[in-house]
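Z., the sequence and structure:
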Amino acid sequence: MTLIITAAPAGLFIGYSMTALIVMIGVSWQWAFYIHIIMLIPVSQVFFAIKEKYLNVIKRNSQNNAQ
């Protein structure tokens, strides 16, 4: 639980630090976004590969939501 709670602040810190380093070496700050997107593509593919029984997602019928 501690790792999950500290992941967001740690990610922000690392992201700002990496962006600062990118800018310090002379690359435009927009490249931080491009690098982020490139790094997230494999992570998103992992979620598609995870079997549904391991995810705690409640499926709801769309007709029940309309009522």
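The chain has three helices and no strands. Helices lie at 2-24, 30-49, 62-66.

Let me know what you think.
H.
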